[in-house]
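Before relying on records like the one below, remember that each one covers exactly one chain. Contacts with other chains, cofactors or solvent are not represented anywhere in the record.
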Amino acid sequence: MGTLLLSIIAFCSTCMGGIVALRQREQLQRVMAFAAGTLVGLATFQWLPRLFSVLALLPRERFTAFVALACGFFTFHLLERLALHWQEGQESQRQEETSGIARPVLGVVSVLLFSLHRLLEGATISLGFSVNPATGLLLAGAIILHNLVEGLNAVVILLTNRSSRRQALIWLLFFACTPLLGALATIWVSLPTALLPRYLGFFSGFLLYLGASHLLPAAQRPSELWSLLWTLAGAGAALIMTVLLQPF
């Protein structure tokens, strides 16, 4: 019952972060800059240190973990190139600028990849309670705090890739539900310990590419100092979150 309740709170937390991004759509460039900083910060301050700590226990997985990191980086790059190529083909046939037809394939792919990670976040809450209630509450609190940023990031990625406001809201609801599904999935499925370095490596590469090579170039304006300041604020938020999650 505690796991279910906290998963529902995580759902609400994600929705709150996404709604902030939707309400600030007029200032999307600033929100994008903040989101880019948080994604790079999360990869640098949270995911990579976790990967190194796991590899200290599983040294034989070092090579495969870093292959997974490269796969995470270049897989998204490949998906981006394919999506852009497909969109350009559609634009040449239908003149999207005048018809208003959007092709938000890349944004949807990104959210689906993020959702895989969020399934495991929900499983983490459930497994924490299997250890003891205090551990479960501590893990849940950290994940709920983290979900505020993840909801914002998901909506920013969708809007950046030309999803409509309605489409972004629908995908946000799906995205917010995934921790609950992950918590329920622990009844039947668990992630093998040997696969953890590969999982951490893949998502580290994915976050680095998404933040540094996808959102950041779109958000930066060389003549405007605020874009840099918002990016640094996003990285600072990720650092503060990491300090709060230090027990993990």
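Residues 62-94 form the longest helix (33 residues).
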